[in-house]
Amino acid sequence: MMEFFATHGNDLLIKTWEHLYISLAAILLGVLVAIPLGILLSRVPNFADRFISFIGILQTIPSLAILAFFIPILGVGKLPAILALFFYSLLPILRNTYIGVREVDKGVVEAGRGMGMSNWQSIMKVEFPMALPVIMAGVRLSTVYLIGWATLAAFIGGGGLGDFIFDGLNLYQPALIIAGTVPATILALIADRSLSMIENKLTPEGLKNSYKTA
Amino acid sequence: MLEFKNVTKRYDGKTAVKNLNLNIKKGEFVCFIGPSGCGKTTTMKMVNRLIGISGGDILVEGKNIKEQDAVELRRSIGYVIQQIGLMPHMTIKENIVLVGTLLKWSKEKKDQRARELLKLVDLPEEYLNKYPHELSGGQQQRIGVLRALAANPPLILMDEPFGALDPITRDSLQDEFKKLQKELGKTIVFVTHDMDEALKLGDRIVIMKDGEVVQADTPDEILRNPANEFVEEFLGKDRLIQGRPDVTTVEQIMENKPITVPVGTTLRDAISIMRDKHVDSLLVVDSANVLKGFIDIESINLNHKKAKVVDEIMEEGIYTVSHHSLLRDTIHKILRRGAKYAPVVDDNQRLVGIVTRATLANLVYDTIWGDGTELEELTQAAE
């Protein structure tokens, strides 16, 4: 054990950082794209259902295949890895944003409009804050998945903890596989807890009683 | 104040509101009522442009709403909905002054306005920092009403605001709101499907069917003269019957010629009059027919040795009703006092008639078994 850390300790830290970096970049991109898109979709419900099913179908493409497809287009390295992962983060966030916004009490939205809220004010002051717990659940789900999937980034030279796992597989060294897996799991758990804390912070006071989050 | 001119609303081929013309005065409380799909809610929502107009014009205080920015327009009109629609993530204070926030009021102005408004509905100030889910349904809708009043709009639209409340809360909120409306002189457009509510609150009731106004009149007028069978049916037989005594004055049902004796009549004469007319009491009037008091057979019995004329033994301060007073109030008073009858007097205290328990019994009989015509025959026969 100590011996392992002596030889791989430095490497492990770097790979963990890389792993975190890739996943977070992907998730951030996902949040930036999927939340506005989800809100936009909630304005066109007829189109939204079809669009979301379409994204759902795309998501069924095996992740390894997606990574492979990206090589001819974007080459190898971190960027294609982040883009591929971003692609996977979209669906849960998009779907939760769409559902969350759509499920906001119609009476509240109508009252807001009737009081004279512009569309933008209605989104910022009413729909988004009220949908936030549902949206955050999507973000958490995406993050946890993404940290797991980010191990595949190693496959296209993206680095991260996947490097350990692939090395372990190639060299028949279970210790390396474990060295890749355990930190990834821990990262996922930490990410989930921190997001849950952020969610709690962001959830408006008046909603906390009605939506208790785990 | 609020004018509808040939207002029409079409939804892909179907007409929801047809050529609606209506003029609502300042301070008027107008209830729109009708079966679902009659266009009442559509009509209301066209006023603040939550629903667009297909044809015609709506004028609020003389200004065509089409020429105003929809968002600005809505901020200048109060709006209360059935689902209450308080923002669950905002405190009561933030909810009350929501329009103020949209209009960018200063914090001080908002605080002050919220406190002022809360006083109107007798809720303690601590409520300002609570959240909607901590309040009961009735309290929530009180806040909903306050929110509509926040920017002091002259016109308030209400879409079945008390529909989701239990009957007792609804009743007290109706009373409270009607009082508030009178105090503040707001013009109200109130949509409801509850006839009792419309009759109770409305200065005018607009009955709609298939997008058209069937009748727009005061509650009394609608009860007395329903425009057609639809209105009658919509009111229901019960209400029409109940409605009749509601607007009947004492004058309409009283017996016109009560048996009287002038002051100065001797007891002997009084007794013979009683015997002739088969009554056990007499009203005593002076020469101008002003009611002075009454005597009955028992008091004559007790006092016939001491007294000679009716003035000496008659009881004064007799309970009377004005000929204008409504029958329902009179019935209530007679029954509560356990009085056998109530003399009816005009504004100068002159005796014009009498309402006896027999009159009431006839009326009840009528209400149950027939309409007003029999009543007249009966009263005529009695005379």
How is this structure best described in words?
The complex is a heterodimer of chains A (214) and B (383). By secondary structure, chain A is mainly α. Chain A has a single domain (2-205), classed as Orthogonal Bundle (MetI-like fold), CATH 1.10.3720.10. Chain A is 81% helix and 0% strand. Chain A is elongated. The two termini of chain A are 35 Å apart. The mean pLDDT of chain B is 85. The radius of gyration of chain B is 28 Å and the shape is elongated. Chain B is an alpha/beta fold and 383 residues long. Chain B has 2 domains: 2-247, Rossmann fold, CATH 3.40.50; 251-382, CBS-domain (Roll), CATH 3.10.580. Chain B is 42% helix and 23% strand. Chain B has helices spanning 40-47, 70-75, 92-96, 98-102, 107-120, 137-149, 167-184, 195-201, 219-224, 229-235, 237-247, 250-253, 267-277, 297-303, 310-313, 327-337, 357-369, 372-382, and strands at residues 2-11, 14-24, 29-33, 55-60, 63-64, 78-81, 155-159, 187-192, 204-209, 212-217, 260-262, 281-285, 291-296, 321-322, 341-345, 351-356. Chain B has a 6-stranded mixed beta sheet with strand order 6-7-8-3-9-10, sandwiched between helices. Chain B has a 4-stranded antiparallel beta sheet with strand order 2-1-4-5, covered by helices on one side. The A-B interface holds A 105-118, 121, 125-126, 129-130, 204-207, 209-210 and B 48, 50, 71-76, 79, 81-91, 98-99, 102, 131-133, 144, 147, 157. Chain A: The chain crosses the membrane at residues 20-39, 51-73, 79-98, 144-165, 171-191.
Write the layout of secondary structure elements.
The complex is a heterodimer of chains A (214) and B (383).
Chain A: H1 2-43, H2 45-59, H3 63-74, H4 78-102, H5 106-115, H6 119-149, H7 162-171, H8 174-202
Helix pairs in contact in A: 1-4, 1-6, 1-8, 2-4, 3-4, 4-6, 5-6, 6-8, 7-8
Chain B: E1 2-11, E2 14-24, E3 29-33, H1 40-47, E4 55-60, E5 63-64, H2 70-75, E6 78-81, H3 92-96, H4 98-102, H5 107-120, H6 137-149, E7 155-159, H7 167-184, E8 187-192, H8 195-201, E9 204-209, E10 212-217, H9 219-224, H10 229-235, H11 237-247, H12 250-253, E11 260-262, H13 267-277, E12 281-285, E13 291-296, H14 297-303, H15 310-313, E14 321-322, H16 327-337, E15 341-345, E16 351-356, H17 357-369, H18 372-382
Organism (chain A): Oceanobacillus halophilus
GO biological process, one term (chain A): amino acid transport
InterPro entries (chain A): ABC_transp_perm/SBD, MetI-like, MetI-like_sf
